[in-house]
Amino acid sequence: MATQLTHLPEVERLSPACIRILGGNPGKFTLQGTNTYLVGTGPQRLLIDTGEGKPSWIAALKRVLEQEKASISAAIITHWHHDHTGGIPQLAAACGLGTTPILVHKHQPDAGQLEIRDGQRFLVEGASLTAVHTPGHTTDHVVLLFEEEDAMFTGDNVLGHGTAVFEDLAAYTASLEKMGRLFGGRAYPGHGPVVQDGPAKVAEYIRHRQQREEQVVQRLRSRNDDPGASATVQGDGAGNAWTVMQLVRSIYSDVPESLHPAAAGGVVQILRKLEKEGKVTVSDDGERWRLVPSSRSAL
């Protein structure tokens, strides 16, 4: 997470039917910026995601459309986060077909948008996309299978650099397992460079989540030597009670502290999953976590 990011050009043709246009919004969590994709080879193209609506993005998109002698027939939104939906108003204002507005498709749509059904197909010359509902990063998240390339637009479930955050770990893991079975080629992520072996990256993500869960379990097994631990140790098994941030500081010791709040979200999801499985318990104030006695030898 602390390594230097690969430079990505503002606009890059990734294949005969796919052009990536960066959202112009680089940052700690958006990496080089949000990837938006213009897909197809004919006069009508599909647009995947809209960035935040930055002026540089809409200018680059208009320039590419002029060069390609093409227009956008529909925009497909992978999920609701602002760095993927923020450009919808600018897109409508700048790239509509005369009096005909661009159709915006999204699972769990907002007002004025069209619903994306699981398995729905989007067709333009040179590109056949199938939407698959893959919750976890968000409840409305979809990925898009790119039939002609045996590829997948992975949204934010799989990134080109580092790992992704998620709202629901169990749903996210199930979605990753589903995704890995659906394609054999590239992954076009919501952020970061193209992943050449998409299924291998999905498998890597699954292993990573399993390793993080095991790290949490191992810390809960061990004595808590954090300087603030004395305030969290009560009752039997003294030394084995941990707050979320104590777990984060121990597990993510090689990660800049500025990223610890994001990591804490993942740790909370792991703890909630283990709690549902009856493997951990939390104190009445919701601050201190420990293994339940029957799980200390079973995990």
Automatic annotation (TrEMBL):
Its cofactor is Zn(2+). One of its GO terms (molecular function) is hydrolase activity. One of its GO terms (biological process) is secondary metabolite biosynthetic process. The keyword Isomerase does not apply. SMART domains: Lactamase_B. It comes from the Eukaryota. Residues 33-191 form the Metallo-beta-lactamase domain. InterPro entries: LACTB2-like_MBL-fold, LACTB2_WH, Metallo-B-lactamas, RibonucZ/Hydroxyglut_hydro, Sec-metab_biosynth-thioest, WH-like_DNA-bd_sf. Pfam families: Lactamase_B, WHD_BLACT. CDD domains: LACTB2-like_MBL-fold. Keywords: Hydrolase, Metal-binding, Zinc. Belongs to the metallo-beta-lactamase superfamily. Glyoxalase II family. This is Metallo-hydrolase/oxidoreductase. It comes from Canariomyces notabilis. The lineage of its organism: Eukaryota, Fungi, Dikarya, Ascomycota, Pezizomycotina.
